[in-house]
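Work Package 4 report. The design task specified in the project plan requires that, given a folded chain encoded as structure tokens, an amino acid be chosen for each position. We show below one input record used in the internal validation round.
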């Protein structure tokens, strides 16, 4: 996943028009969309040569002040700003976690205590590591093969997800943006590189979205699910980091009390709790 810094900077300056940053451009057609490298350098207060070397990934160690200036010019949001700092100045390269990521017993117990809310644990590369009964009733994790317990693979390689998610395009974009953020934090993760390569070969949608270099943290939001039994569910969600396991997060769907979705979730909970047979 080399070249992330240059690709990211080029994609961000392509979306900024000169007028957006107060530049008056007259005459002639511009050869590149958005800002030129020379314009970014001028507005950030650095030399053109310095910025070009930075974008090519061969510049010296860059200061916070320069990165902050570039982020201001490119109008980066907080997540994009953090990503820029990460890929521009990567820290010590930690070894990738083992393939079998483990969920500690206390977290599994916490999942079960959230009996009235669908919940699951995400690990590195957006692997689904554990879930409670209601989370399984909503998504069907227990029916999936181990290789399918990965959100990007589900979204891009399982045609059924286009029916499951009425807003599939938004879910796909959000998934890739979060995976891109993970890639910036772990540039030497061979399993992640393999996953990106697999999805790039098998999904044109993934290739297009990956090339767009959007980055976004999935901290909260709303997901709509077209459940085969319960019907359409509108599910706000919260994503909570797991202390002691920085690669893991707890995702909890929180239907609004008294809503139609809450009633349907209650029916699913009764169905999930019913004895087999």
């Amino acid at each position: 996943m080399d070249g992330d810094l240059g690709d990211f900077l080029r994609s961000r300056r392509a979306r900024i028009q000169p007028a957006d940053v107060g530049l008056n451009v007259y005459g002639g057609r511009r050869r590149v969309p958005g800002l030129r490298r020379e314009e970014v350098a001028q507005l950030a207060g650095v030399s053109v040569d310095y910025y070009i070397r930075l974008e090519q990934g061969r510049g010296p160690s860059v200061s916070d002040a320069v990165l902050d200036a570039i982020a201001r010019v490119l109008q980066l949001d907080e997540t994009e700003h953090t990503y820029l700092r990460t890929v521009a100045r990567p820290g010590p390269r930690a070894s990738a976690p083992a393939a079998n990521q483990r969920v500690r017993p206390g977290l599994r117990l916490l999942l079960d205590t959230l009996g009235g809310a669908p919940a699951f644990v995400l690990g590195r590369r957006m692997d689904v590591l554990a879930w409670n009964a209601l989370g399984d009733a909503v998504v069907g994790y227990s029916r999936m093969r181990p290789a399918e317990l990965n959100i990007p693979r589900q979204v891009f390689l399982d045609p059924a997800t286009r029916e499951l998610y009425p807003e599939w395009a938004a879910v796909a974009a959000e998934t890739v943006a979060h995976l891109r953020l993970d890639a910036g934090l772990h540039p030497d993760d061979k399993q992640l590189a393999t996953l990106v390569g697999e999805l790039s070969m098998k999904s044109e949608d993934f290739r297009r979205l990956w090339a767009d270099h959007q980055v976004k943290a999935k901290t909260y939001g709303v997901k709509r699910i077209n459940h085969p039994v319960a019907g359409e569910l509108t599910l706000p969600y919260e994503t909570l980091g797991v202390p002691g396991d920085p690669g893991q997060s707890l995702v909890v769907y929180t239907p609004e009390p008294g809503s139609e979705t809450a009633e349907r979730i209650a029916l699913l909970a009764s169905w999930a709790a019913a004895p087999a047979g």
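Residues 240 and 250 are 5 Å apart (CA to CA). Validation will be extended to a larger panel in the next phase.
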